[in-house]
Amino acid sequence: MGMPLPLAQLRPPKMEPLRKHHLRKNAAAAKEKAATLKQEQEDVRARIAKMFSAERGAAASKMDTNEKEHKFWSTQPVVQHAAAKELSDLGAGSAIETKTVADVQKHPYPLIDSFEWAEIDVNDDAELEEAYKLLNLNYIEDGEAMFRFDYSRNFLKWALLPPGWQKSWHLGVRVKSNRKLVALITAIPARVRLHNQPREVVEINFLCVHKKLRSKRLAPVLIREITRRVNQHNVWQAVYTAGIVLPRPVTSSHYYHRSLNPKKLIEIGFSRLAPRMTMARTMKLYALKGAPSTPGIRPMEMRDVPAACKLLREYYQRFSLHVDFSEEDFAHWLLPREGVVYSYVVEDPDSGEISDMTSFYSLPSSVIKNPNYKTLNAAYSFCTAAMKTPLVDLMRDALTLARMNDFDVFNALDLAENKTFFRDLHFHIGDGKLHYYLYNWKCRPMESKENALVLL
Ligand code: MYA
Fold it and tell me: What is the pTM of this model?
């Protein structure tokens, strides 16, 4: 997915003024409530959000006013900012340009002399390691360079080898002289439903240029070349996300964050202890039960795939943008993988019917300058279908399961029905946004609650 950002400040929740008589009548309860609210208020200033919105936030303020000229993006088949007013009339939409495979340029786009294109074989441990290291050292970080995404090797294999994957879409740039990998962009095949129409697309992710090669217009060459390679397979649309505002988001979401291990988050400078709050009270505020509460909730297994896939497909019909998994896709993306993806189903103890499912993936960040901690363990909400269990209960269990699996924080976008549980479950909003884009498709923009697509 394209992801995150520079430093974003979490926005404090609105505080209800406490009335005097209420204070007098119920002083102890009010004191407790005030302390809780203060803690929440302070926590929302945490660094957590910075991980997800820094680059984005800064760019967004400029770009929202359309000040920025896009030398590259203005040449691409994407909805341009100027066309925004007409967008609401577009409905389900249509392609911006129509080509055939015969129209596609046969040769790769040229790179400057000292560089060459390289296909990365992520099934080869040495090449996987190169991609891992490039991203580990050069991918998205917060504006103060305290945290940087640390997609694990197994995560990369999961993310890049779904059914139908193409090696030619795992595209790198190497220095000719020493073969050093200095840039990456990836595409994977996907089927989505967009305003109720099925579309074969690619998801673009892991666009990364080595820090020393930034601002040299290498990114547009990577994007043109991956487009050419995808077009060669007769695929003409793409979905991608980014923290920065480009022409032109089809929808945008905020990240919300739920502390699971407040002590560690405070120690690594991710959040702060609120004034007059003790560590003990803070920990009590975010404490979760030792085990999930929903009867019949358990890790997903291979035998659940048909029923759980059907359930998710049915649930997703509520939304205007979502993935359209086959059972094979579903098995790839949802069957649990230790350290990568955690999925659970609710099996009715009497009927054995699968009534609900939830999942999250693991995307740690390197803690860059802390002597005591190297890694921040973050869980990200992934695919959920709450058909019988109330969503808030299912997500409370997801938080508990994430905590049981040693995650420090649980992140979720405010897409789909997620906003309905954030308040009850002590999530706090981040400042930045994640923008969703479509390549070569114009359609009416959508509110984030219409979107159920989560990219990695
Ligand atoms: S999002 C994750 C992006 N990666 C990072 O943030 C990691 C850290 N940053 C870097 O590695 C570099 O800063 C990157 C830019 C590589 C991001 N998406 O080479 P430049 C435009 C799209 O001089 P650099 C993810 O992975 C920028 O507006 N465009 O810049 C999804 C400008 O164009 P224009 C971006 O900083 C990626 C031009 O690049 C992004 O050295 C989806 C400047 O190039 C961005 N995140 O390198 C890609 N950032 O002048 C699109 C900058 O016009 C896929 N730019 O404003 C499109 C569909 C393709 C397939 C289609 C198939 C049909």
Answer: 0.89
